[in-house]
Amino acid sequence: MRGWSGSMQYSLQAQALASSMNTSPPPILGSMDRLWTPWRYNYITGATPEARKGVPQELSAWPGEDQGCVFCNLIRSVEWGIQAADGNTEPAERAGRIIARLSTCFVCLNAFPYSSGHLLLMPYRHTDSLAKLSPEEAAELIHAAQWIETALREVYHPDGLNLGLNLGEAAGAGVANHLHLHMLPRWFGDTNFMAVTAETRVLPEMLETTWERVRKALSKVPFFSSPIPPIA
């Protein structure tokens, strides 16, 4: 009982002190600081009408029509860039952060990663549902996930991996109209004070470096698939 009364007295003293300073006692969960990210503004709001979402700046000359989908615009502009470079794939794939182009699916970096090595796997075909994938698309998506897991483990030596599909805006999908599978390495303690108290992720690696490292690791592991089909 003495301990309780002592704690109550301390609490009353703290409140009195805060009142005398014309401030409020610090809440358990206070207001968050804001970390301004102006580079995301156009992506989120579409504030630049002439800019087609998903088209890398280096491929802005792509003459195709806006597909209304960040991923469809991305892969079509990359395909155009490869054709414009007489089949040289690296410049366009580097610009689009494309990790791999397979038969029915492709893999790219997440432009706003949760952690280093955060990749997205998806079908070329525009669809918002796992149930709508063809057997070939579904099989290759999982095969690609196995392939990517091998590379992520080699490059980052994580304690674990997250794989996830968010189907629909209510489920947290940032791009709800084109199915995509998240894959990212995780480590014990990677949810540190920056993520918990400041809602900020600390990424030790630039996207360019991630692209190079993962591509190099994948080049050592063959992926058996049919030739890449043209994008309609």
SSE arrangement:
Elements lengths: L1 H19 L20 H5 L24 H15 L5 H6 L2 E4 L3 E5 L9 E5 L11 H22 L3 E6 L15 E6 L6 H6 L8 H12 L14
Antiparallel strand pairs: 1-2, 2-3, 3-5, 4-5
Helix pairs in contact: 5-7
The CATH topology of the domain at 97-218, please? Answer: HIT family, subunit A
Strand order of the largest sheet: 1-2-3-5-4
CATH class value of the domain at 97-218: Alpha Beta
Mean pLDDT: 80
How many strands, what sense, and barrel or not for the largest sheet? 5 strands, antiparallel
Compute the number of strand runs. 5
- Percent of residues in beta strands: 5-15%
CATH superfamily of the domain at 97-218: HIT-like
Note the total helix count.
7
What structural category do the secondary elements indicate? alpha+beta
Q: What general outline do the C-alpha atoms trace?
A: globular
Could you estimate the helical fraction of the residues in percent? Answer: 25-40%
* Regions with little confidence, pLDDT below 50 for 5+ residues: 1-8, 192-200, 226-230
- Rg, please? 23 Å
Amino-to-carboxy terminus distance: 77 Å
- CATH architecture annotation name of the domain at 97-218: 2-Layer Sandwich
> What letter string, H or E per element, gives the SSE order?
HHHHEEEHEEHH
